[in-house]
């Protein structure tokens, strides 16, 4: 299975190594990626050569969803937590390579040092913004619509199959 961001699950033979515009004829246009994915899945379920199909996100936009307000307590808590995880990892590695009975000391030292450095780095980073960004957010790129393209020799067949899907009728291979 592949995601729209991780590349394709198919072999890279014949695929361009540099970003290039997609080719093919439009066979469907959908409001969500899930609908476009469902259309391609329908084609695959009906033995259509889906290796000749491309899903293209059109009218791309960056969407930043605000997830909360940042306060000193939240920033320092997050810094301490992330520092603790990293310190725990480093302490565990140090403990593995130390004497058999002395693994707890390096583990606790790594944890403590991680918390301290996490607090310092979080405080310095947050203070450097001087209140210009007192919120946390999550960003993603989304498309206004998703077009499904097929290579010309199979485009008509694909359009017919997707039209039957849209009408809710049985899908038959030509």
TrEMBL record:
Q: Which Pfam families match?
A: YflT
Enumerate composition-biased segments (Polar residues). 1-15
Question: Keyword Transmembrane helix on this protein?
Answer: yes
Indicate yes or no for the key word Membrane.
yes
Q: Which domain of life is it from?
A: Bacteria
Q: Which organism is it from?
A: Actinopolyspora saharensis
Q: Which residues cross the membrane?
A: 75-97, 103-127
The protein's name is General stress protein 17M-like domain-containing protein
Which parts of the sequence are annotated with region: Disordered? 1-23
Q: Which UniProt keywords apply?
A: Membrane, Transmembrane, Transmembrane helix
Q: Domain General stress protein 17M-like spans what residues?
A: 27-101
């Amino acid at each position: 299975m592949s995601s729209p961001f991780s590349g394709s699950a198919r072999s890279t033979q014949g695929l361009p190594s540099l970003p290039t515009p997609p080719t093919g004829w439009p066979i469907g246009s959908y409001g969500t990626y899930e609908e476009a994915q469902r259309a391609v899945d329908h084609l695959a379920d009906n033995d259509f050569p889906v290796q000749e199909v491309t899903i293209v996100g059109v009218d791309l936009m960056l969407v930043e969803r605000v997830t909360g307000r940042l306060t000193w307590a939240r920033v320092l808590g997050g810094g301490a937590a992330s520092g603790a995880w990293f310190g725990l990892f480093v302490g565990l590695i140090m403990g593995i390579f130390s004497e058999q009975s002395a693994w707890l000391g390096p583990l606790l030292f790594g944890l403590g040092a991680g918390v301290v450095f996490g607090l310092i780095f979080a405080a310095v980073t947050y203070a450097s913004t001087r209140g210009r960004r007192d919120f946390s957010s999550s960003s993603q790129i989304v498309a206004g619509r998703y077009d499904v393209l097929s290579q010309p020799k199979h485009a008509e067949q694909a359009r017919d199959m997707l039209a039957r899907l849209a009408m809710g009728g049985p899908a038959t291979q030509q």
